[in-house]
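ingest -> validate -> predict -> emit
validate: passed (alphabet ok, no gaps, 258 aa)
predict: started
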Amino acid sequence: MNTPAPPPTSQDESTQAEPATPLGQRLAARRGPILAGVVAVAVAFGLWGVWRVVSPDPGDPRAQLEDSRRDSRGQQREIEHLQQRVATLGRSDQISRDANRDLQSTLAERDEEIAGLRADVAFYERLVGSTAQRRGLSVHALRLQPLNNTAWHFTGTLTQNLNRGAVSTGQLTMTLEGTRNGKLEKLAWADLRQQPSAPGVGYSFKYFQQVEGDIFLPEGFTPVRVAVRLVPRSGAAIEQSFSWADATRDVAPATATP
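emit:
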């Protein structure tokens, strides 16, 4: 009959437990890195979640709205830039227009001045030139300028070169033909001056002289023709007529009436 083996002594137990000690140490050594990795993954996952919340996806309406806002701000800056350019170009164009208008006005004034000087030269050549035609006392031109609705200022240019060196002296008067209330009417010098027995405008010259004065038209009177009468101190009176349209232009040629 077999005899049961005696139980192991404490020395045997310590001998059998000794091999388990290195495995526990290895498990304890691996537990630290694994825990650190788990923590790192958790932190990374948390950061990714925060980034997803803060920075939405491109398809997110909030992202599209932000993009639209950026585009709108860019377009607004572009619009402001273009508006500034338009304003600058507009000012430049206005300055050019003003300068061109001033230049055209200056050129027109110079052309008018040149035309006037040429007319003066022609006038003097006809009057005192070597080939000038000898003429007695006459009204070379008549000019009328309005002062108001009824008052007019007249300037008559008188000439003579028949008797060179001789002085022509006398008085100038005028009469006016026209219509009023559908009827023909003639205004005498006293009517035009609004003075009974009004004296004429005196003149005295050798070759030419400009005689000036004012006349007054009654209300409702439409002038048609004006006649200028020269009464020299010696000799017969001379009368020349002008149409009102010619007399109210810059220079009006005379039409002698017998």
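The chain has two domains: 40-132, 138-256.
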